[in-house]
Amino acid sequence: MCRWIAYSGTPILLSQVLFRPEHSLIDQSLHSRLGVETTNGDGFGIGWYPGDTDTDTPAVLRDVGPAWNNRNLLEVAHHVRSGLFFAHIRASTGTAVQQTNCHPFRSGRWMWMHNGMISEFSRLRRDLALAVDPALYAGIEGSTDSELMFFLALTFGLTDDPPGAVARMAGLVETTGQAYGVPHPLQMTVAVTDGVRVWAFRYSSEGRSRSLYYSTRVETLRALHPDASFLRDVSDDTRLVVSEPLGTLPGAWNEVPESSHGIIQPGGDELHAFRPVPPGGPRPN
After folding, report:
1. Which of these is catalytic: 2, 14, 118, 240?
2. Digit-coded pLDDT (tens) for 31-76
3. What does the alpha-carbon distance between residue 124 and residue 94 come to, in Å, rounded to a whole number?
4. According to a count of CB atoms within 10 Å of the terminal CB, is the N or C end of the chain lower?
5. Could you report the per-residue pLDDT of 127-164, keeping only the tens digit for each?
6. What is the CATH number of domain 2-273?
7. 2 is catalytic
8. What is the rounded CA–CA span in Å between residue 130 and residue 152?
């Protein structure tokens, strides 16, 4: 599968998250502890919002090589500072290793990344692709299930109601899979952002989803670890959502509950249950 990180909070150099932690994303690309594969070397990507420019669209850097030895990634990470960024390392589930298949995916100001798979995607692909809004379809550049999931969510109103759109996307995938006799069509942890808020989803048809964690509130960590100097440099609203904990600091990481989604946003984070909505079903509460 894959590993990913979503960061929101005090603007920092990307290297502080991607390279410096004990079990950083770069370390996970070689030594994943909780993923299906130990090595995630089928490409990588980072996406960030500059914050000091007139554009509200994210910058994206993607490549097909492994993250652990990419000099461009090292250079960018040590010179780019951002308060909201995504990073992803890929382990292909069958689609080609090519730049357009690397995450995160972008549409306007929105970014999306995914760990998991649509089971028997080659059989389901045509039916799912036909459900994408024709006005959006030309924006699909690659061949992954992950990017198609993104464009289905856009079709179902991602820009207005991210949880509802992702629920309808998941419902369509499950309904289509079941029509083809696929017992557990969907496995996903997903992060999506509009540059202000971050939504993170953990769900699978079989109820055994891939790992996902979120960081404990900074003020709580300061009380637990008053000697941890790096905690003094970030704001109280700084958060990370990660496929695997980045270190072993006691109390720092919390597992995202099965079949749930969370929102990181100004004014307070939220955690809710998540369930797919089949085609024609009512909008989720």
Report:
1. 2
2. 777 776 677 678 999 999 987 655 689 999 999 988 888 999 999 9
3. 14
4. C
5. 999 999 999 999 999 999 999 999 999 999 999 999 99
6. 3.60.20.10
7. yes
8. 10
